[in-house]
Design brief:
Blueprint: H1 2-23, H2 30-59, H3 64-90, E1 94-95, E2 98-99, H4 104-135, H5 137-164, H6 169-180, H7 182-194, H8 200-224, H9 230-253
Antiparallel strand pairs: 1-2
């Protein structure tokens, strides 16, 4: 099981970095990013509602409302965390209601804030993947796929921020790679403690479900609202549904082990 967890978390980082390398060889087209965002939103919602939360409720000794309360607390926690990071990132860039051009000091601050947020997010991804595999292989595979699909557009955005902040492509890739390793560290930490505290695994699965729900409805789906072209709106909607379908298909290919 530990081998599966390590391979899964390393795969997330490597696939995300390969995606960044491939895309940044040329110009990024916003339409392509919207495709990834649509698919990611669907997989996150599917993984949360069709796999992680039901498994958390089934595996837990607590009442179902305790697990759903943990999921709700997760949504609220990530909202507050994201608002704090956004405020901390922007407060020095605003003056009299106008956004001023970032200076070198502010750009260094952007690098730190971006890397800190990415490290925290990857750490949680490691917790999520480890907790999912500790439930069973099917849940682990579903969680890993959901993380991979949403990590690719996120890593592209993070890489773009680092370039904006003045880093070279080589240094930005190096920083991203090092930060990606925090997912492995998070997985190892949770594996160590999760196998010793029986109820920690389903609680983490519920927390992960809340994380996935928040990412989908607060970060990804709002990005799709900016599209006005009717054809692309239909395509994005179908891709979101396709993301859910991927999770359903994974559930059929990798059935839960009783």
């Amino acid at each position: 099981m530990l081998f599966n967890i390590i391979v899964a978390t390393m795969s997330v980082g490597l696939i995300s970095l390969v995606g960044v390398l491939v895309i940044f060889r040329g110009q990024i087209h916003e339409r392509f990013l919207k495709v990834l965002v649509s698919l990611a939103a669907g997989t996150l919602l599917g993984a949360a509602f069709l796999d992680l939360l039901p498994e958390a409720i089934e595996e837990s000794e607590f009442e179902p409302h305790v697990m759903t309360s943990i999921a709700l607390a997760s949504v609220l926690a990530f909202f507050l965390l994201e608002r704090f990071l956004h405020w901390h990132h922007c407060r020095d860039a605003e003056h009299n209601g106008e956004i001023v051009r970032a200076k070198s000091g502010l750009k260094r601050h952007v690098v730190f804030t971006n890397l800190f947020g990415d490290a925290l997010h990857n750490l949680i991804d490691g917790f999520v993947i480890a907790a999912a595999f500790l439930i069973d292989v099917q849940t682990g595979v579903v969680a890993t796929v959901a993380v991979i699909v949403h990590e690719i557009p996120q890593e592209i955005a993070d890489f773009g921020v680092l370039l904006y902040a003045g880093l070279t492509r080589t240094r930005a890739l190096l920083y991203n790679f090092v930060i990606a390793l925090t997912a492995v560290g998070g997985a190892l930490v949770f594996y160590y403690y999760g196998t010793r505290v029986e109820q920690l695994t389903p609680m983490m699965a519920a927390f992960a479900a809340g994380n996935f729900i928040y990412l989908a409805v607060a970060d990804l789906i709002p990005e799709l609202y900016h599209e006005k072209n009717s054809t692309r709106v239909i395509v994005h909607s179908l891709l979101l549904l396709a993301g859910v379908a991927i999770i359903v298909a994974l559930g059929l290919v990798f059935p839960h082990v009783a």
